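User: Please fill in residues for this 750-position structure.
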């Protein structure tokens, strides 16, 4: 922020060596290099708090108000533009407004359909209370089991929207599905505003916010996938994560009053709570955030109060969600809770951590870290043993297998490893980011800030116990804590994105804010201009305005025609085979019929028909994962009797077989679903290629292929009831009771 210089009494009535370091709510004290005097400035909204060059900058009284108003209006414009763009693209891709109801529901693919089905279920319930009871005592999602969906899944957003739709007088002119998707698209507007504010707070210029929002919109392919995965939990949670980062950035600013800090703490809690409530993977995101706080604490870039507050905000958010999710044990068994408890406990016991010279401090930090991580894993292990938490073990299997030196045969881990979304970040992502000029300022900003952070950390750790107050203060002010937090945030989440492509959506949005800060930062431009020996206040202001405007102009002329062309491209939803299947199930099968099949298809069956499922895509349950692996034996080499017994044990009445899975060609050999099942069962895989020496040939043909031959062994247990080019549906026959004198196999009733 630019600051208007204000004369102190000592400057008016003679020189004084006394330094007044008091800070007013609207002002910040700055010490010029080589001088004992302090310049105080009134911080104006949207301007820089860094003094560069010489001379006094004169502001008209109305200029701060105009700057603030312009910045806020620009934030709203960009937010509305993003929401409108994703809505238009969604409509153009599917021609959603002209689809039949069943086609609209089929467009909610995979787990999106499962989550949306609970919104639909709540709206169809006779009352809100009965709808909630149905969710708490649900026996439709998993056959032969009654589960608490509010405990198992993060679907409070669907509950909230359904209640809101019931209460608001909008039923006559807004369909339920549009109320749902418009809400999700509106969260994209919130996301843009959060990035805008983060960039504005970091750089002190609303131009940085505008640039961040524009980059987010133009890099839509890599920043969001909301237009075709509307109900995914990340589309609900990431806007709240971005808001949380913005509030943390504001909280770490030095010029806040006590009241402003309290407001920021409450906002941090609310945004953290909303983020945790809407995504089951919140614990892993918050763990990285806790590691950032821990690192900044070790190098003295955060005060003890700030560290404790940030930790407690995370704990409060998680425990609040734990209560709302009926004491979900997965939250108590999370690594982040164990880490925070360990970090606070060891920090309380090791009181002399920040005392001593450089080598002493480094050795203490090393010992401190070893103790914290040992205690973390001990607490986590004991907690999971005591609570018997196994819900998230498939995630740790995936992480272990991903970074292992040898392949795994674990079915759950392989199911993730073989998906492109869980592979390494493709290099063409960086090419697209460079094409919009996002990557070019981001990398230098990252390097400059990382170097400055390293120097600041070294200075902080080098301050001995007997150092002067001036040295300690200079070391503490060497690097802004809000910038340090955002730097480590983008670094760590960038590493996660490079290791797992699906996690790039956490990184690329924040990347826009960091790059925009680099373009508009007074500190970075001052450093560069001083290096070029042409530093002046006027040149600094010109550069900070001209460079972002030039980038915006370039992006406009290059991408505006492309964006208009993309928005004008019209496509249409077309999936007649799935529509035919859903229509047949709705009209030709009993309402209490139980269906078995792939997780993705069953989610659609739940939404479109309301039938009972054997398994579904929400994979965070050990028993469900075991059942899914068993149901998938229909695509393995198993005998009809074995498959029949497995399906009957799951309570299935019908099984749906998909040609796209049985004859899959999308994945390479070793990653097809049938290959994963063969490996898990110890069988040799199909097709040419090498096999491990311990694998053996299967005794039976592949079930999904053999059943289509209508052999006697198969028709005795299964009868085909529906067939088209994509799907085959078989009804499980009921076995006749064995007669005591006949050793023959029992016949099956048709």
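Assistant: Residues filled in for all 750 positions:
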């Amino acid at each position: 922020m630019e600051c208007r210089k204000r004369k102190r009494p000592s400057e008016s009535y003679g020189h004084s060596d006394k330094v007044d370091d008091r800070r007013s709510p609207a002002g910040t004290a700055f010490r010029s290099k080589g001088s004992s005097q302090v310049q105080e400035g009134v911080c104006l909204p949207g301007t820089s708090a860094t003094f560069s060059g010489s001379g006094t900058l004169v502001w008209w009284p109305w200029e701060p108000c105009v700057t603030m108003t312009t910045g806020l209006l620009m934030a709203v414009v960009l937010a509305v533009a993003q929401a409108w763009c994703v809505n238009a693209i969604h409509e153009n891709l599917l021609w959603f407004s002209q689809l039949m109801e069943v086609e609209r529901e089929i467009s909610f693919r995979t787990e999106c359909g499962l989550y949306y089905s609970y919104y639909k279920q709540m709206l169809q319930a006779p009352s809100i209370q009965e709808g909630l009871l149905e969710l708490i005592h649900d026996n439709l999602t998993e056959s032969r089991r009654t589960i608490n969906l509010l405990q198992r899944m993060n679907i409070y957003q669907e509950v909230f929207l359904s209640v809101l739709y019931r209460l608001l007088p909008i039923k006559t002119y807004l369909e339920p599905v549009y109320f749902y998707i418009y809400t999700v698209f509106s969260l994209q507007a919130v996301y843009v505003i959060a990035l805008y504010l983060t960039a504005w707070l970091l750089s002190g210029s609303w131009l940085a916010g505008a640039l961040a929002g524009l980059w987010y919109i133009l890099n839509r392919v890599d920043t969001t996938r909301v237009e075709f995965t509307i109900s995914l939990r990340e589309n609900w949670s990431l806007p709240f994560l971005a808001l949380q980062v913005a509030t943390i950035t504001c909280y770490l600013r030095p010029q806040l009053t006590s009241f402003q800090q309290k407001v920021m703490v409450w906002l941090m809690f609310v945004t953290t709570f909303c983020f945790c409530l809407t995504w089951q993977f919140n614990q892993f995101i918050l763990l990285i955030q806790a590691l950032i706080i821990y690192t900044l604490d070790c190098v003295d870039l955060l005060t003890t109060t700030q560290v404790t507050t940030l930790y407690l905000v995370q704990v409060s958010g998680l425990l609040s969600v734990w209560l709302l999710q009926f004491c979900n044990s997965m939250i108590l068994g999370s690594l982040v809770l164990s880490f925070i408890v360990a970090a606070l406990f060891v920090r309380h016991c090791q009181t002399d951590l920040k005392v001593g010279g450089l080598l002493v401090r480094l050795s203490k930090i090393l010992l401190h870290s070893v103790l914290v991580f040992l205690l973390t894993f001990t607490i986590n292990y004991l907690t999971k043993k005591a609570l018997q938490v196994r819900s998230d073990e498939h995630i740790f299997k995936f992480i272990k297998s991903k970074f292992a030196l040898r392949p795994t045969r674990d079915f759950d881990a392989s199911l993730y490893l073989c998906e492109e979304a869980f592979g390494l970040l493709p290099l063409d992502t960086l090419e697209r980011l460079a094409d919009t000029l996002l990557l070019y300022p981001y990398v230098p900003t990252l390097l400059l800030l990382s170097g400055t952070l390293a120097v600041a950390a070294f200075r902080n750790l080098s301050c001995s116990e007997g150092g002067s107050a001036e040295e300690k203060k200079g070391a503490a002010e060497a690097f802004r804590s809000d910038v340090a937090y955002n730097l480590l945030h983008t670094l760590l989440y960038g590493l996660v994105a490079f290791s797992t492509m699906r996690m790039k959506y956490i990184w690329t949005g924040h990347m826009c804010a960091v790059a925009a800060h680099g373009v508009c930062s007074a500190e970075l431009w001052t450093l560069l201009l001083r290096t070029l020996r042409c530093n002046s206040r006027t040149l600094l202001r010109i550069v900070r305005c001209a460079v972002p405007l030039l980038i915006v102009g370039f992006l406009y002329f290059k991408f505006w025609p492309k964006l208009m062309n993309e928005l004008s491209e019209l496509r249409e939803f077309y999936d007649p085979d799935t529509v035919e299947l859903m229509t047949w199930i709705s009209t030709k099968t009993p309402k209490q019929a139980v269906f078995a099949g792939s997780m993705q298809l069953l989610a659609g069956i739940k939404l479109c028909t309301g039938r009972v499922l054997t398994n579904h895509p929400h994979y965070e349950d050990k028993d469900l994962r075991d059942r899914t692996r068993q149901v998938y034996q229909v695509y393995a080499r198993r005998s009809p009797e074995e498959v029949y017994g497995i399906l009957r044990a799951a309570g299935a009445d019908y099984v749906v077989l998909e040609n796209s899975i049985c004859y899959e060609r999308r994945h390479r050999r070793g990653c097809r679903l049938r290959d994963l099942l063969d490996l898990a069962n110890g069988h040799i895989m199909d097709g040419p290629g090498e096999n491990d020496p311990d694998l053996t040939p299967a005794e039976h043909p592949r079930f999904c292929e053999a059943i289509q031959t209508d052999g006697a062994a198969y028709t005795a247990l299964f009868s085909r009831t529906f067939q088209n080019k994509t799907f085959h549906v078989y009804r499980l026959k009921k076995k006749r009771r064995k007669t005591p004198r006949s050793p023959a196999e029992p016949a099956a009733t048709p």
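For context: The CA atoms of residues 545 and 579 lie 55 Å apart.
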